[in-house]
Write a structure and sequence with these properties.
InterPro entries: Glutathione-S-Trfase_C-like (IPR010987), Glutathione-S-Trfase_C_sf (IPR036282), Glutathione_S-Trfase (IPR040079), Glutathione_S-Trfase_N (IPR004045), GST_C (IPR004046), Gtt2-like_N (IPR034345), Thioredoxin-like_sf (IPR036249)
Family: Belongs to the GST superfamily.
Shape: globular
Strand order of the largest sheet: 2-1-3-4
Largest sheet: 4 strands, mixed
Bound molecules: glutathione
Pfam families: GST_C, GST_N
Oligomer: single chain
Number of strands: 4
Number of helices: 7
Protein name: Glutathione S-transferase
Keywords: Transferase
């Protein structure tokens, strides 16, 4: 199998993080440079169906896009540790928090970065007001996460799941524009530190020079 990837973008990072939590190391990583349009070549778009990463190409040539669909496939192939839930209740609860993480936080932060970071002009017709509005929404939604994390160690229960990966990777992408966690969210701060210190947080990320 091959994972078509790019280092800084959040959606491929979800998959790399997920693979690292599971110890999956037998998938070839193919790095594309989005700024040079390597995800827009006719060959790639013919396989993926759209000019997006990540894409997982199976050994029989089947191609899967959408980071969560790829993670679900990998969960079936590499079941442990379980990150999508086992019982009907757990599966629904993890799905609920994954969707909240994506819709309330990860997507608004991504739109915020795309519309306000100068380099993103290569990929987006930028409207800074759209970016600012989305960043305000994401900041407001972090209160929802803080309330949840006041009662639970992880977003969907007592262990890390795909919901935590989606939420944290989304928030962390905001570093591109120095998006900071508000200081009055102690539970988000505790959880974010726990996420940041997991080895999987480094998976495929460019190493930063020591300060
Ligand atoms: N919903 C998709 C989103 C994929 C996506 O938006 N990928 C971005 C990188 S994070 C991309 O390929 N952007 C290319 C572009 O905007 O030209 C997923 O979860 O995989």
């Amino acid at each position: 199998m091959k994972l078509y990837d790019t280092p800084l973008a959040p959606n491929p990072r979800r998959v790399r993080w997920f693979m690292a939590e599971k110890g999956i190391d037998d998938i070839e990583i193919v790095t594309l440079n989005l700024m040079q349009g390597e995800h827009k070549t006719p060959d790639y778009v013919a396989k993926a169906g759209l000019a997006n990463v990540p894409m997982l190409e199976l050994d029989d040539g089947t191609c899967i896009t959408e980071s969560i669909a790829i993670c679900r496939y990998l969960e079936s192939r590499y079941p442990e540790p379980n990150l999508f839930g086992r019982t009907p209740e757990e599966i629904a609860f993890i799905e609920m928090w994954t969707r909240r993480a994506e819709m309330l936080v990860a997507t608004p932060v991504m739109i915020g970065v795309r519309h306000t970071h100068p380099a993103m002009g290569a990929l987006e017709q930028q409207v800074p007001a759209i970016g600012e509005h989305n960043l305000t929404s994401a900041t407001r939604a972090l209160k929802v996460l803080d309330r949840r994390l006041a009662e639970s160690e992880w977003l969907a229960g007592d262990r890390l799941t795909i919901a935590d990966i989606v939420a944290f990777v989304g928030i962390d992408f905001g570093r591109m524009i120095k998006f900071k966690l508000p200081e009055d969210l102690p539970h988000v701060a505790r959880w974010a530190e726990a996420m940041r210190s997991r080895p999987a947080a480094q998976a495929g990320m460019p190493q930063r020079a020591p300060a």
